[in-house]
Amino acid sequence: MKETGARIQFITDKEGPLLERLKAEGEQTPADLFITVNAGNLWWAANEGLLKPVNSKILQGNVPAHLRDPENRWFGLSVRARTLVYNTKKVKPSDLSTYEDLGSAKWKGRLCLRTSKSVYNKSLVAMMIHEYGEAKTEQMVKSWVNNLATDVFADDVQVLQAIAAGQCDVGIVNTYYFGRLMVKKPDLPLALFWPNQNDSGVHVNISGAGITRYAKHEPAAIRFLEWLSSEKAQNLFADANMEYPVNPKIAPDPRVAAWGPFKQNLINVSKAGELQGEAVKLMDRAGYQ
Ligand code: FE
After folding, report:
1. Is 169 in the same domain as 231?
2. Residue 14: CB partners within 8 Å, gap ≥ 6?
3. What is the Å distance from ligand 1's center to 174 Cα?
4. Axis crossing angle, helix 15-25 with helix 39-47, rounded to the nearest 10
């Protein structure tokens, strides 16, 4: 790292094995910084005591308050929205309005969803529990299940492909999957829709990072984390992923900006972790596979 003078080694894996490894290594861990997707995973790491609070004016200035841990143990670095996607040959944007409306009668047999086992859906439903309460959220999830065109899918790309193929007309996906698919297949009849623009906004989540509890190079790790939130790194990081920079001063990649501006839901993403257990139980009760 020329900018911060630190030499960096990366160990990459899926979040589950990485978290287990960090936990098992305890004080012996060679890791200074833990980087992963989804606030649910970061919340879990912090809750297990694997991350250390960082008091940094730079991070607090660069990362909006709802996209970092209220106790400063992790910070968002890029933003993805979990939003609606539709088949442009079968649906007009004016047919769409809110997440809740996907449960209304007009979408009967027209909705595709990814499995409830995905951390993205657990986090989405957890944040909805915070926003609407359990009863209303359960009703909403049940109404979605009622409207499914087909069995749930293993991932967001399959949802996008099913909608493009006309198997269903509308679904919920993370923005960067849409972006990456459209780069490869620009002619697919798909478009994003920003729901709830007249009320609480589109649900967002983060990729983010925190300093490990037993970091051996804490000052260097903090400098690196601060650098990741800076203008230069924000462009590199978010553009490569087709995500949104977390730092609101930085413009998104033009391909991402082309989807248009939207109002974000300002619930702190830590709720995605805090209420995840409740979300899993609720989705089970609602019959969401
Ligand atoms: Fe993903």
Report:
1. no
2. none
3. 7
4. 20
Task: Look at the chain and report how many structural domains it folds into.
Answer: 2
- Domain shared by 68 and 207, yes or no: yes
Whether the Cβ atoms of residue 108 and residue 259 lie closer than 8 Å to each other: no
Parallel, antiparallel or unpaired: strands 203-212 and 75-87: antiparallel
219: CA distance to ligand 1 center in Å? 30
Structure tokens at 115: 């499995």
Say if residues 243 and 207 touch (Cβ distance below 8 Å).
yes
Residues 24 and 165 in one domain: no
**What pLDDT was estimated at residue 232?**
87
What separation in Å is there between the alpha carbon of 5 and the centre of ligand 1?
A: 31
Ligand 1 centroid – CA 77 distance (Å): 15
**pLDDT tens per residue across span 99-135:** 999 999 999 999 999 999 999 999 999 999 999 999 9
Cα–Cα distance between 62 and 267 in angstroms, integer?
18
What is the spatial distance between Cα 209 and Cα 225, in angstroms, rounded to a whole number?
Answer: 8
What mean pLDDT, rounded, does the chain reach? 95
